[in-house]
């Protein structure tokens, strides 16, 4: 690709933007201009299923692409999803180009501790709960819940970088 590709990301979250940068910098053949923008996700602040989280990711990708008139829109959404084993963190990404069909990919998921899950079931949002439990601010912009609960082995940037790599790869495959 010999021209700069304008990529709109539907967030100002630092971990998410950094993940998009790292995923594209792993492919030096691309010259990209990455721009973040706060957009509505169209779902709850704390999505509570894979369905809702996927919908938020797609909604963010489309809103960011349209608002910034970019060639590509990317949406990354964090949520939780219930299973018989307990409440899991789930994360989803969507990539939209000029076609209407989004590419979608999911990230790693881990079981949340019971005490955290209970608070979310009572209506709290994971970001503020994490900050409260750790007595810090803006964990969601850094290692995230996934980083804390995996003892720093996989942080939010790494987790979302993986998701964006999965998105770019699917987009490349379709455009081969
Ligand atoms: O500004 P935006 O893009 O909304 O960034 P955010 O940090 O709020 O991210 P999401 O809305 O996608 O995530 C939903 C909630 O889960 C929180 N969260 C924190 N770490 C997380 C992780 O590792 N996985 C999933 N959700 C996480 C996040 O802060 C929110 O409260
Ligand atoms: Mg949010």
TrEMBL record:
It is an enzyme of class 3 (hydrolase). GO terms for molecular function: ITPase activity; metal ion binding; nucleotide binding. Mg(2+) binds at residue 69. Keywords: Hydrolase, Magnesium, Manganese, Metal-binding, Nucleotide metabolism, Nucleotide-binding. GO terms for biological process: nucleotide metabolic process. Binds 1 divalent metal cation per subunit; can use either Mg(2+) or Mn(2+). It comes from the Bacteria. InterPro entries: ITPase-like_fam, Non_canon_purine_NTPase, NTPase/PRRC1, YjjX_NTPase. Residues 10-166 form the Non-canonical purine NTP phosphatase/PRRC1 domain. Pfam families: NTPase_I-T (PF01931). Its cofactor is Mg(2+); Mn(2+). Its EC number is 3.6.1.73. It catalyses: XTP + H2O = XDP + phosphate + H(+); ITP + H2O = IDP + phosphate + H(+). PANTHER family: NON-CANONICAL PURINE NTP PHOSPHATASE_PRRC1 DOMAIN-CONTAINING PROTEIN (PTHR34699:SF2), PTHR34699. Belongs to the YjjX NTPase family. Homodimer. Phosphatase that hydrolyzes non-canonical purine nucleotides such as XTP and ITP to their respective diphosphate derivatives. Probably excludes non-canonical purines from DNA/RNA precursor pool, thus preventing their incorporation into DNA/RNA and avoiding chromosomal lesions. NCBIfam families: PRK03114.1. This is Probable inosine/xanthosine triphosphatase. It comes from Jeotgalibacillus soli.
